[in-house]
Model the fold of this input.
Amino acid sequence: MSKGNKIRRRDYEIITTMIRNDSTVLDLGCGDGSLLLHLKKTRNVTGYGVDKDYRNVFASVSNGINIIQSDLEQGLSGFADNAFDYIILSLTLQAVHETEVIMDEMLRVGRQVIVTFPNFGLWRHRLQILLGKTPMSKELPHQWYDTPNVHVLTINDFEKYCSQYDVNIRDRIVISESGRMVTTFPNLLGAVAIYRFNKGPN
Done:
């Protein structure tokens, strides 16, 4: 198993621990629907995936996942307030343009939100910048010219955003490149961050 697949698998395992049985879930940028399929099997969840790529739509349907073909950048206007117990955005936040719009919409539609993202503050990324290179790693596998990432996002950046916009962080788990949990100097040693949060102080 490659390190990239190992990180994603570990990401799924941690997300699963954050979700209650029999919940409703909306998975944004769901890809082939593998996360929702896993949650259906392990947590008996119901819900939908959202993805704009028709290939992912076909793959999700093949996996038995209810999916809506839509561009996240257009918002979630088709969903009512608090329509889902959980909204999930896995390893996609750094690749969206309208970050504030999407964060607001997730907090409106979901009672709780789970977001995961690669940490650009990882020591290996910092070292590459010091050497005059665009950071690349298993979590950030693209070259500068073909990367889908449009934001340079660190753990400290995300927590500052949450503090400024009245977002209540309920859980934070940071993992290393090997998939182990990081509790010391997470912004330096963490490869991927997983957050569960909601709107407001409680």
